[in-house]
Amino acid sequence: MSAPNSGSRDIRIEQDVVLARQFVRKLAQDYGMRLIDQTKLVTAVSELARNTMVYGGGGIMDWEVVDEAGRTGLRLTFRDEGPGIPDIKLAMTDGWTSGGGLGLGLTGAKRLVDDFELDTAPGKGTRVMIGKWI
């Protein structure tokens, strides 16, 4: 493909969440990701982009197409400079939500993707990396 294989998008307002979902769906389609995997990835993106906007006060979604060990995937990193997650154990508890999102929480987003990393601390912001293989 002649398009760039990495970049960043602002996640500041509700429209940015919508645009992030649309962008990732198109990217996944362009690389031949199966429909079910597109849906899982876009659902996770929706939850994480909304978290970035609502709880992190806005931030950035970095994206890249990765080729590792003979396979291709999409890696997305959501990062903000918000208050961070005070209780990671609680935030990673199935069924827990602080309200306002899709009700998936971080654990729901984690189940929808192949790779998931969370880096956060109170006062230090949050970084969530997800990956889905094609």
The proportion of residues forming helix, as a percent range, comes to 25-40%
- The shape is globular
The CATH architecture assignment turns out to be 2-Layer Sandwich
How would you spell out the order of helices and strands?
A: EHHEEHHEE
Distance between the termini: 15 Å
- Please count the helical segments: 4
Q: Structural class of the helices, strands and pairings? A: alpha+beta
The CATH superfamily turns out to be: Histidine kinase-like ATPase, C-terminal domain
Please describe what this structure looks like:
It contains four helices and five strands; from the N terminus they run E-H-H-E-E-H-H-E-E. It is an alpha+beta fold and 134 residues long. The chain has one domain: Histidine kinase-like ATPase, C-terminal domain (Heat Shock Protein 90, 2-Layer Sandwich). A five-stranded antiparallel sheet has the order 1-2-3-5-4, covered by helices on one side. Strand 2 and strand 3 form a beta hairpin. Helix 1 packs antiparallel against helix 2 and helix 2 packs antiparallel against helix 4. The longest helix is centred in the N-terminal third of the chain and has 20 residues. The two termini are 15 Å apart.
Keyphrases for this structure?
Heat Shock Protein 90, single chain, alpha+beta, 4 helices
Write the layout of secondary structure elements.
Layout: E1 6-11, H1 14-30, H2 35-54, E2 59-68, E3 71-80, H3 88-91, H4 105-112, E4 115-121, E5 125-133
Antiparallel strand pairs: 1-2, 2-3, 3-5, 4-5
How would you summarize what this structure contains?
By secondary structure, the chain is of the alpha+beta class.
